Amino acid sequence: MTTLDLTPATKTGGSFPSLASMTSTRFVVEMKTFLRSKEAWIWILAYPTFMFVIFNFVMGDTVNMGTDFTATFGQVFLPGMIATGLLNASFQTVAADVVTEREYGTLRRLSVTPLSPAAYIMGKVGMVLTTAVVQLVILLAVAVLAFDVTLPTEPTLWLRFAWLVVLSLAVGTVGGIAFSGLMRSAKAANAFVPAVALILQFISGVFFLPFGEMPEVGQYIANVFPLRWMALGMRSIFWPEQFVVAETGESWQTGLTAIILVVWFVLALAVTMRTFKWRSKADG
Question: Long-range pairs for 106-113 at CB < 8 Å and ≥24 separation?
Fold first, then answer.
């Protein structure tokens, strides 16, 4: 098994384009491809907002999380929807895209161009970051304007929000590329990847709170996966400080959240570097 070659796949003469040039070109292609699929971009951009609105209409009430302090259901539910939206925009989108591109020969054709795997991956990251920012703006606007959600005012919380978003998207994007290697066909990926994302949402404190009231076995399983920590990190930003008592150990565990997400990114990158292929097994 070979490691990921960060140089262009083929040299046809002359000097290679720079990595920055290849990345920017690939980013434009990724965005055009994304925007041409109206069903995909509408669903990715709308999913967290749609779920947020539906749950607010069904569950709309105040929540106290076992404390004397109350907050609106929207305030409590928002962090989970932010986390799951980031997961869907990165992991779910990229995993399915890479399998489809490999099966239908897109990657095979790219392999005979100067494009390097690094530029291909960074083009995906750029597309994911762009769509995620739009998704977040829509979700936060609806939460504030329609459901009276209060956004944090402390600069330190917005700084934490920024690195959580970037790190979460990095984990999801590289993890999606690594996971795509397990899928044999686009049909399998389109069925299996959303199922994995949905299961993670149910066990990671997105839909059912407080997380500490889940069965211990479920907590142990969820603690292994990044979505649980993404959701916890977002709760530390958007929940009232009084609600920290509802968390495991009565702590936001911000440092541990960062460590686990970084570990997941490194592991996913290592897997990607070892397993990424331009061609499917059927191509020989």
Answer: 107/277, 107/278, 107/279, 108/278, 108/279, 108/280, 108/283, 110/9, 110/278, 111/9, 111/10, 111/278, 111/279, 112/9, 112/10, 113/8, 113/9, 113/10
